[in-house]
Write a structure and sequence with these properties.
mainly alpha; globular; about 60 residues
């Protein structure tokens, strides 16, 4: 699994993640607010949407 600095993810670092890695990171996201996504829902989304969710969450969480 690729490594992303939890405190400073870059868009480029998100581009190298596979869909299953993005889903895992979103499901295990530890931020100021909880996510209420299911694995099935996240798996149905396109990769670009998953990247957007993770990038936005990390940006807001900083």
């Amino acid at each position: 699994m690729a490594h992303i600095d939890k405190n400073n993810p870059t868009r480029q670092s998100l581009l190298i993640l596979l869909k299953k890695e993005l889903v895992w990171k979103i499901l295990h996201f530890e931020g100021r607010f909880p996510f209420d996504f299911t694995r099935d829902y996240l798996s149905s989304l396109p990769v670009n949407k998953l990247r957007h969710i993770l990038y936005a969450a990390n940006t807001i969480n900083c």
